[in-house]
């Protein structure tokens, strides 16, 4: 039954990503990196990502004529979506690396996943943030944009990984006698849930960063 649920959830997520991808091709975002962010969110948020994209994301399309009436909660949601997409992409890239290499740390593949995926999530998270900051202020230079990206994304990224890694630990040690493998649909369904939880733990951090002026609301 869990396998069936997993395949359904993954199929819905992929379909949501495809729908969003088609729409951002037809209606590109003013901030180029968001053309990648929204489809990634579609993969783990599914229909909810579709709803938020068409309600809030399309307001930032280059051809949009509607007034942007979003409040801070909605803008912070989009900021968190941007952060979560970079983290999720890095985490997803890290999974096959650990699986193919058979890497283990302290005898644990879970710890290897933690280390590899955190590093890649950090790299891609900062990279996504860089491409949000640099195009708006190229005069300040790329080095300054990288520093700003690290400052803006570090706390929110750590908060994301707390939620994600916490769920991964429960999956590994509590929920299954034999944890699912990356070759199984159940594994990636668990990753979808982990990314949603990471988003939820990252939202308060993004709110704090926006309130203190460290990060721009989007």
Task: Briefly say what this structure is.
The protein is an all-alpha fold and 218 residues long.
Please write out the topology.
Elements: H1 2-26, H2 34-45, H3 47-55, H4 72-101, H5 109-133, H6 142-175, H7 185-211
Helix pairs in contact: 1-2, 1-3, 1-7, 2-3, 2-4, 4-5, 4-6, 4-7, 5-6, 6-7
Characterization of the model:
The termini are far apart. Helix 2 runs antiparallel to helix 3 and helix 4 packs across helix 7. The chain is built from seven helices and no strands. The chain has 218 residues and is mainly alpha-helical. The radius of gyration is 17 Å and the shape is globular. The chain has a domain of 139 residues. This is DUF4396 domain-containing protein. InterPro entries: DUF4396. Keywords: Membrane, Transmembrane, Transmembrane helix.
């Amino acid at each position: 039954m869990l396998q069936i649920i997993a395949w359904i959830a993954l199929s819905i997520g992929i379909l949501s990503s495809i729908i969003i991808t088609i729409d951002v091709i037809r209606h590109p975002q003013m901030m180029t990196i968001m053309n990648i962010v929204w489809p990634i969110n579609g993969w783990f948020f599914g229909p909810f990502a579709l709803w938020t994209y068409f309600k809030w994301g399309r307001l930032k399309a280059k051809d949009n004529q509607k007034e942007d009436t979003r409040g801070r909660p909605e803008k912070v949601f989009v900021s968190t979506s941007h952060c979560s997409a970079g983290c999720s992409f890095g985490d997803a890239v890290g999974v096959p690396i650990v699986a193919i290499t058979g890497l283990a740390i302290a005898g644990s593949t879970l710890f290897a996943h933690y280390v590899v995926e955190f590093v890649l999530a950090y790299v891609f998270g900062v990279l996504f943030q860089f491409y949000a900051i640099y195009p708006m202020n190229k005069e300040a230079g790329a080095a300054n944009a990288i520093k700003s990206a690290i400052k803006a994304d570090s706390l929110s990224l750590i908060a994301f990984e707390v939620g994600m890694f916490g769920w991964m630990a429960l999956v590994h040690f509590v929920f299954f006698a034999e944890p699912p493998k990356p070759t199984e649909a159940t594994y990636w369904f668990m990753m979808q849930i982990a990314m949603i939880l990471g988003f939820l733990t990252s939202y308060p951090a993004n709110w704090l960063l926006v309130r203190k002026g460290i990060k721009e609301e989007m």
